[in-house]
Amino acid sequence: MATIQLADVRKTYAGGVEAVKGISIDIADGTMCVLVGPSGCGKSTLLRMVAGLETISSGTVSIGPKVVNELGPAERDIAMVFQNYALYPHMSVYDNMAYGLRNRGMAKDEIERRVREAAATLELGSLLDRKPRQLSGGQRQRVAMGRAIVRSPQAFLFDEPLSNLDAKLRGQMRVEIRNLQRRLGVTSIYVTHDQVEAMTLADTLVVMNGGVAEQIGAPLDIYERPASIFVAGFIGAPAMNLVAAEGGAPGELVLSEGGTIRSAALPPVPAGRAVTFGVRPEHLAIAEGRPAEMELRVEAVETLGADTLAHGRLANAATGARAIIARLPGSIRIAAGDMLPLAIDRGAAHLFDRETGRRLAAAAQRSEAPDAAAGGTAARISFSRSMST
What we know:
about 400 residues, alpha+beta, Rossmann fold, CATH 2.40.50.140, 2 domains, six-stranded mixed β-sheet, six-stranded antiparallel β-sheet, 9 helices, elongated, disordered C terminus
């Protein structure tokens, strides 16, 4: 096993298009690093440079103590798992898993041992004689992973391996991949556009945007303290509510689209300072027994069972103002047309510089104060269109 280090790695294509703009990451031995971002952000290009499938314009990639910039893919001692499985259709599961070992001239009994061990780990033992066409999507992905495992590489590289699976199977395979990586202890880089996959799989999360690493850190740290408006809007489902505002009186924000937020949860901001205010839907609660800090006119309701999503706009907001979402307990009974008095969980407000998009002020850590707990309790009250209880 090995560490992987990327030092100021860049990729510029012919014509001057810069796909990766100087990314540096240290990936500890045995950990999972996930690259996440929208299509075209450079994450797959970065992975392919680590694999040796793309040339590096500048910077260095090291696997273990060795700089591998000039080494071909076969010399880097890595194994890659692709989105499309890349299995040989005319070969059995056993032969697909054994193919690379045979090409390396490995002894037959060692090939047998490695394939059988990997098959047992992946619960493929009863499928070794089948052809890929006889397997489900999840089973094919296991075979692709088995082909990587038998090589005992220094690192695994995963390029959106679950994109072709349905939602239920993706969830199952996420857990299997994470458990397998921890059990094997192999340093891994995983590329995905799915932020749920990213949050659940990563030891280190790299949020990419336009060829730049917007933020690198532990998943929960990034969720709780996003470094930019982009990260705040990308990580989290539903996305963070983001509203343009200016500082007013202490504890007050004047919203550009109309209305005012007054809350002790707000970090201090100078009067007149242009900011973007952010709060996650799950950090809004119905303000029962405490002053309302925001008022939401409900326009649509999504009933999800455990949760209810209330979509609407703030009272006094201008026509066409940005929609706000509040994530409330599933026991809530609300409907379009209701006015919901909302409070912000303590320590849950975020402020960003409107011009640069970077985090402006760090909100205090969420406390366990009684008023925060009260918000959770208050949110269980049912509301009708007339707001009667």
